[in-house]
Amino acid sequence: MRYRTAVGVMVASIIALASMSSFAGPGQGQGGGGNEDRGQQMDRDRDFDRDRMQDHDRLEESDQARARDQDRTRIHDPANIKDQDIYGSELMTQAERNRYREQIGKSDEQGLAQEFQTQHEMTMQKRALNQGVDLVPPGQGPIYGGELMSVQERNEYREQLRLSNSEAESQQFQARHREQMRERAHALNIEIEAAE
């Protein structure tokens, strides 16, 4: 009986010492090996934080794309749509803008808002092309190298930018465009005005 008690006390002491050494600070217990474990843990923490940030960025891009789609197709109160928020409003009369508000409201109730919006956008693009004017979607400004582009090229650029699925896709498209405009300006031996 005493033998079992003595062995039990020794095992408990060894377990207690082992657990205490795992909680020891740097340079304590295990002959300084704690520094190596701490460095590995810091590396794992850094990797975890980096992965978490990348996941956050991907989710944010996805949320932005989803929000753009919802903004484009869901109308909460058609009467509150501002003129400048209507695609191609600068090419429409006030009566046409009012009629647009009525139609988008009816289409939204019937679940046909996206179809109506697509048809409206095509009509505005044709109108802009026929009139030889720029069609600037809400939220877009000047185009880098726009003075070196035809009206049709500017309108195609804006449309492709507007339909980008993510911020990353949009940035890649804009980077390719800037390079093309730099090449065009170099070939014409002119400077590009700052834009965007």
Structural class: mainly alpha
Helix % is 55-70%
The number of E-state strands comes to 0
Helix and strand string, N-terminal first? Answer: HHHHHH
**Low-pLDDT runs:** 25-32
Write the layout of secondary structure elements.
Elements: H1 2-22, H2 34-73, H3 94-110, H4 113-131, H5 151-162, H6 167-188
Helix pairs in contact: 3-4
What would you say this structure looks like, in words?
With 196 residues, this protein is mainly alpha-helical. Among the domains are: 66-133; 140-196, no CATH class. Helices cover 67% and strands 0% of the residues. The chain has 6 helices and no strands. It has helices at residues 2-22, 34-73, 94-110, 113-131, 151-162, 167-188. Helix 3 (94-110) runs antiparallel to helix 4 (113-131). The longest helix has 40 residues, at 34-73. It starts with a helix and ends in an 8-residue tail after the last helix. Mean pLDDT is 76; it is low at 25-32.
